[in-house]
Amino acid sequence: MGKYNLRCNRVVSEKLLQKDFIYDSTILPKKKNNHPRETRVLHFKCNFCNEPIATRMSLSTHVKSHCREYCRICFWVVQDDESIDEHKNKQHNTDLK
C-alpha cells in the first residue's frame, strides 16, 4: 500500500509523493517582500530589568521569569525595599486591613 495523500484524500504511489511533496529549495521562486518590516510599538517596560515589552500579556509572562513577587494588577515586580501590600496600597488605592 502506498502513502496517504492528505491533499486529495487518496492513497498514492511513491512516485507521485516524490513529485508532489519533495521540493528542491533552489528551484522554488523567491518570495518578494514588498512590505517593509513593521516595527512593533513597545508599550510596556519591565520595572525590574527595563526590558521593553509589546503587550500586557507578554509583560505578565515576562515578570514570572524573574521568580520574584509581583503585582497581579499591574505586573510590577516588587523591589527589595517594598512589600506587595505597600505597592497595592500606594498604587492601586487598596486599603488592606
TrEMBL record:
Query: Where does the C2H2-type domain start and stop, copy by copy?
Result: 44-71
Q: Which GO terms describe its molecular function?
A: zinc ion binding
Acetylation found in the keyword field: no
The protein's UniProt keywords, in alphabetical order, are: Metal-binding, Zinc, Zinc-finger
The UniProt entry, under InterPro entries, shows: Znf_C2H2_type
Output the superkingdom of the source species. Eukaryota
Q: Where are the transmembrane segments?
A: none
Q: Is Zinc-finger there in the keyword field? A: yes
Q: What is this protein called?
A: C2H2-type domain-containing protein
- The species is Aphidius gifuensis
